[in-house]
Amino acid sequence: MSECEGTYRTTAEFYDILQAERDSRLVARLYGARVAAARGAVVDVGAGSGAVSFLALTASGVPVHAVEPSAVMRSLLLTRLARCGADRRARVTVHPGTLPEADITAGEAELVVCHNVVPTLDGAARRALWEAAARVLGPGGLLLMDRPRARAPREAEVTAFTPVRVGADTYEGEVRETACAEGAELAFTYTVRRGERVVRRRGERFLTRMLPLEALAEELGECGLRWEETGERVLVARRAGAG
Q1: Which one of 1.10.560.10, 3.30.450.40, 3.90.1150.10, 3.40.50.150 gives the CATH number of domain 11-148+212-239?
Q2: What is the mean pLDDT of each run of 10 residues along the chain (243 residues)?
Q3: CA-CA distance, 94 to 136, in Å (whole number)?
Q4: In this structure, what is the dihedral angle of CA atoms 27, 28, 29, 33, given to the nearest 10 degrees?
Q5: Structure pTM?
Q6: What CA–CA distance (Å, rounded) separates 111 from 226?
Q7: Domain covering 157-208 in this structure, CATH number
Q8: Which of 21, 42, 126, 206 is the most buried (most CB within 10 A)?
Q9: What's the confidence (pLDDT) of residue 1?
Q10: 221: which residues sit within 8 A by CB, 6+ positions away?
């Protein structure tokens, strides 16, 4: 999630109904095996409503740190935590801010997961994130992230969410990605229909930056993190000092 406290005010209303289930399945595919194998703490950076955090709670027995700067997304996360068992809830610490601001013991974590986070950050914020990740990871610990785009799309790319019926209404959504001077803009549009009539339509926009692997490798290396794996969907960097 964004480092800005006030963002996601529109998206938060529609996220669970339109996107959460799909995102949870994706997170499980991308990070499930490594999270399940973790023996040290898992740090969920940009936790949002908790897809990675709840994956860690169900797949492992380790402590979880959910780091989320957006107040409205933290409210979704805390609502979900309120509904889960006390034993699981006791393993999660929610940090209201960014990873550099989070009070996490140095070397405590085995995994730091950054899902849907890195492209939203400018260079200074990324540097602060890498430094913080290197600080909280123990020797040999892993930083996981979904692979950012290296270049902006030549033409607009549109992804529609599966419509969901709620009473008399149908909730719909789409995200349109278009190139812009700084990288690419993600424009989310949410529509509520009652029959053929549009009851409401809301939107929210986010800037993402293009990040070639070579540039990322240089940034990470300066902070003591080295590529372990560069797959098509997931990037893995290891903190120096293993063994």
Answers
A1: 3.40.50.150
A2: 61 96 96 98 98 97 98 96 95 98 98 97 98 98 96 96 98 98 96 98 96 95 94 94 63
A3: 15
A4: 120
A5: 0.94
A6: 14
A7: 2.20.130.10
A8: 42
A9: 36
A10: none
